[in-house]
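Changelog-adjacent note: as of this version, every example in the card shows the full chain rather than a window. The one below runs 300 residues end to end.
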Amino acid sequence: TVSGYADKFVQKFGLNLQSTLLTDLHRINSDLQYISQPETNAGVTSNTKFLIIQQLTTTMNDVLNQTRQLQRTQYQKEHQIQQMLLNLTHDIKTPLTVAAGYVQLIQHQPSTATPQTLARVAHNLSSVNYYLHYLMDFNLLQEKSTNVVFKPINLSHFLETELFNFFDDLNEKHLTLTPMITPNITINTDEVLMRRIIQNLVGNWLKYATDSVSITLKPRDHDHILLEFKNATQSPQIDVSQLTNRFYTTDTARTTQSIGLGLSIVQSLVTSLGGKMVLQSDNDIFTVNLIFRTTSSIPQ
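Full-length structure tokens:
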């Protein structure tokens, strides 16, 4: 009968279908076991023409490729961090060695403790302190990445207090500060991170600025404030696109400096507070513009 032929057809080809599916699933499982063992770029394969199996293998290969790309990116970041720490170690070790050498010389020959020699010791120890702060900020970023605490602060008063703490340092560098701070600007922010942003950018003045520096705090619009750090510089035209590259260095015959690290850390701190940093360089004037919402919150 027709019914009998239909039953035989389903029985015969149903078994073939089941066998084909099992074969493909076994092949996929075998491929996945192979891929999980050695380091390989192999993908999952199948011989079936069933659409659902083809879609399954395509999705698996897409996931494998994404995972491999993430692994490569992570490896590159780890390698860059290792190189950055190596550069920082060199940046710290060199001035520390020089300062220690001068101290040993003074211990053996007290007459060499001239103002010039002591100034060299102080300069090198200042460099050590400068790069140690970078390491501290790097650790701070890791600790604060999941624990940013927002609360209202009077940013105008907060900024004035931090600048006052740098008064002697700015005078020593013969830097004339022009503050333009709108009174009583209050925002929600993390006090620890905001303090390190200000300290880092003032530290940038002390290292690179010449003659004059200025700072501006004012409303930008109804929902945002602008915090601007500006300084004159004797450096040639600056490639601002490189200055937030954490791993950007300048190589000379005498030294390797991780010049991108400081502003990269500032950018990370600003981003953690939901803000934005814009750099500008024009006619020997370098400007860092920071834009924050008046009701800052953790960026999603």
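Structural remarks: Residues 1-13, 247-258 have pLDDT under 50 and may be disordered.
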